[in-house]
Design goal:
Length: 527
């Protein structure tokens, strides 16, 4: 809630009226309420409702310094969503329509020891004169009145489905004249919010509902277009008679589906929640049981059992990369269905895996290691990277070198001898990672890594050589020539550098010819 300075407001009559009714204490933290004007109904707003109020505010014992009444614009916010101070969320939840009350809000439920400078000092008790104008349990889901939701029965909890989840609903859809055009079975219907069901309004609305919530939707024509297979088209014979829909909808439950990659290429549907909060990471030893199938149910792969689970090291390409990434989002004991798209797999068909994470072991985090342990882990990861590089797995090797370098980047607690060893390892990891990035064409990353090396060792020929290769890859020939000449001045007999120097000269010569040809063409056109 914004606080703006305005002229002080005298509310003497309000103060006198407030003394007529007794003061009530709300909760156990000192929030008090004194009713100035009683409401006109028995209902009160519930968390999640959008409420509309007028207010004035002062510090306790002082004049009012801000008021929505001065601005002639009511203040709106969603109740119980943390959009305002706690005292407002708790106090306004007790009000009825058109009720007016004075709330005295202690610091703990206001701005606490932080305050809201310059108007509200730390640890201030605030006095609010609030009138509840209205609240809106009817929601405009689409923002353009195309989907209006009327809540018939509130749901449980505060969670709502995410856009990738699979929901289980019961519904009846009918025209405004009462003709039923679609309905679920008595048991209900399950569908993915990605693919949708019946019409766009269903998916849009379900994402705003809580478990067990029942609602009635008024849906305009554009949001009532019917899904037909994978395409959206209108049902011609219903359109004239049924331009708008009424949908009675109940959200029975839903299954959480995690979008692992953020582009819906790897989706994980949790069928059984796991324990605690920890998850495997790169290098973790995991024990899993899984079955890999095509969408038609044909089993292509089966590994492990509850008695003898399959063990492997994460991020070591022991199983499909997409499945490995999903495993690193799981908790111990979690069971899930993982769907990997054909685009991600570069195959003709997607794969579906039923997987259970039995157990896993993670390595000690580097900040808990002593210097010698960190050096040893760096060497281990570097050696792993070397093996991957020789096998042509440049991206995996790059990740290993990057991880290795991080073990020894911060060496304040190292001895002088350990610092020398760590710096040598770090330079080697940077250079090796740069070689990987050259192989996969990430030239900007190559220049960053080589520059890191040169900051530590300005005469490092390998760093100059690889950075010049990166500059050539981005056609920055002047910088490439500068690096290659510097490398030659340091090591005139380096065969690789001399070959690259010749290539660079040839490339510059061809570039000069190309520029001359372009210039000649321009001149001839001008003539």
């Amino acid at each position: 809630m914004a606080i703006s300075c305005s002229k002080p407001i005298s509310l003497q009559n309000t103060t006198e009226a407030a003394s007529i009714l007794p003061e009530a204490i709300i909760g156990a933290k000192g929030l008090s309420k004194r009713i100035l004007q009683k409401g006109i109904s028995w209902q009160t707003p519930t968390p999640g409702d959008e409420v509309e109020v007028h207010y004035s505010v002062s510090l306790q014992g002082s004049e009012y310094f801000d008021s929505s009444r001065d601005k002639a614009t009511p203040f709106r916010f969603k109740l119980g969503q943390g959009e305002v101070i706690k005292g407002w969320d708790e106090g306004i939840a007790t009000m009825r329509k058109n009720e007016r009350a004075v709330f005295t809000i202690p610091p703990e439920l206001g701005y606490s020891e932080i305050g809201s400078p310059p108007l509200i000092p730390p640890n201030s008790t605030l006095v609010f004169d609030v009138q509840l104008i209205s609240w809106y349990p009817i929601r405009d889901i689409s923002g353009d009145s195309g989907i209006i939701k009327k809540i018939i029965s509130e749901g449980k909890g505060w969670a709502t489905p995410n856009e990738t989840d699979e929901v289980f609903v019961k519904y009846v859809a009918e025209c405004e004249n009462g003709v039923v055009i679609s309905k679920s079975d008595d048991e209900g219907l399950e569908f993915s919010l990605i693919s949708g069901h019946l019409c766009p309004a269903m998916s849009k609305t379900v994402k705003t509902m809580r478990k067990g919530e029942k609602a009635e939707l008024s849906v305009k024509f554009s949001y009532g277009l019917m899904y037909c297979g994978d395409e959206t088209s209108k049902i011609d014979d219903l359109t004239p008679a049924c331009p708008n829909l009424i949908i009675r909808l109940e959200l029975v439950n839903w299954s959480t589906v995690v979008d692992i990659t953020g582009d819906k290429k790897i989706l994980k549907k949790i069928t059984k929640n796991g324990e605690a909060f920890d998850r495997p990471n790169e290098g973790s030893l995991v024990k899993v049981v899984y079955i890999g199938k095509l969408e038609d149910g044909t089993v292509l792969e089966r590994r492990g059992s509850d008695e003898e689970p399959f063990e492997y090291m994460c991020a070591e390409e022991k199983i499909r990369g997409g499945l490995d990434r999903a495993v690193m989002t799981m908790k111990k004991g979690e069971e899930a269905i993982v769907k990997i798209s054909s685009d991600f797999l570069n195959s003709a068909a997607p794969m579906v895996y039923e997987i259970k994470l039995i157990d896993f072991e993670t390595k000690k985090p580097f900040w808990k290691m002593d210097p010698q342990e960190r050096i040893s882990e760096c060497e281990t990861n570097k050696n792993d990277g070397n093996i991957l590089f020789k096998d042509g797995k440049f991206e995996l090797a790059s990740n290993k070198y990057d991880k290795a370098a991080k073990y020894v980047e911060y060496n304040h607690s190292f001895s002088d001898e350990q610092k020398n060893q760590a710096n040598s390892l770090r330079l080697s990891c940077y250079l090796n990672e740069a070689a990987c990035k050259l192989k996969i064409g990430e030239y900007k990353e190559v220049t960053k890594l080589c520059t890191k090396v040169l900051e530590l060792d300005p005469y490092n020929v390998k760093a100059l050589f690889r950075r010049s290769q990166a500059y050539m890859g981005t056609s920055d020939l002047e910088k490439a020539e500068e690096d290659i000449n510097r490398a030659l001045s340091i090591d005139p007999n380096n065969r690789d550098v001399k070959i690259k120097h010749k290539e660079l000269k040839d490339q510059r010569r061809e570039y000069a010819k190309h520029e001359a040809k372009i210039f000649s063409t321009m001149v001839s056109r001008i003539s």
